[in-house]
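Long-time lurker, finally posting.

We've been working with Acyl-CoA desaturase (Actinomadura rudentiformis) and I want a structural starting point before designing mutants. I don't trust myself to interpret raw outputs, so I'm hoping someone here can both generate the structure tokens and explain anything notable. Sequence follows.
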Amino acid sequence: MTVATINPFGSRTTVHLSPEDYEAIARELDAVRDEISADLGERDSAYIHRIIRLQRGLEIGGRALLFASSLPPAWLAGTATLTVAKILENMEIGHNVMHGQWDWMRDPKIHSTTWEWDNVSPAEQWKHSHNFVHHTFTNVLGKDNDVGYGILRVTPEQKWHWANIPQPIYNALLAMFFEYGVALHDLEIDKVREGTNDPEETKEKLRAIGRKIRRQWTKDYVAFPLLTGPQFLSTLAANFTANVARNVWAHTIIFCGHFPGDVEVFEEETLEGETKGEWYVRQLLGSANISGGRLFHLMTGNLSHQIEHHLFPDLPSNRYAEIAPRVRALCEKYDLPYHTGPLRKQVTSTWGKIVRYAFPGGSRPNEDQA
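Top reply, 14 upvotes:
Generated this for you. Predicted structure of Acyl-CoA desaturase:
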């Protein structure tokens, strides 16, 4: 067996795979995709319609409770219900619909080209920065802007700068207002700082973001609070709280799928001549799952199956749970890591890295133990 190093940094994972192994991995994972795609049908369609009905019912119920938001029990119940509705809309519905996971149904109301989510990030910009850039160049430094979101040092391979020192504070603020960070993501702030961006394109993107923010603020902070009349201020506070809670949850799940413990990053040279099998292995090494039950997976938008999502981003999310054991078995077969753990572990690991890499130096977890 020949030796190929998929991680040119030579850090924790050196993958010993022959070209034939990569080809076999591609065939096996392509077969999983083909099998699931051929099996999509009524039960999948019923699932997404059921989740959309549930989400809309929760939103209507939450907003109805806020008509009595001056009463603490009604405020708490309304805020909690609205928070769950917003989480479901953004994660299990919006994120996955805009990935094209349900385009096979050919339903113009549940289609990646028509869905606009309950978020200040314009759908078109998100689809470019996420669907194309992130999922094509997953964890490649200099290509994938999701590695640290342009403001955080999350791996020792990133150059340290004194501005990284307060990054735990940056991250806490990013969590609270995550939708705004996502909205700015497609601007490619690094290019703006370096002056290599197209000024007119940047201005147009900013105008689109401004329009979306006005739309969201009008809905959550003007229209619905006004509908509750004398409960205006308490409803306004409830809507703000629901948005922040949704943002913190989304930030937590997404960061725990990309940055904990042993998740790898790659140099740009990894992309040179990259085969389908090597792309699949890069997704495996650059992702982490979060273990939990069915309700937990639903509330994460099934992004708790981040490995399966990175392998098959356009397969319906309700199928990731049945795909996961097959992917894990493949990892065992080829002696590849399958990063997974409970939420508590992944959160601790992710925040631990953010705090550690705020300072110069640093090494990977296994190197610390060596």
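Before you design anything, note these points.
The chain has a mean pLDDT of 92.
The beta strands are 289-291, 340-342.
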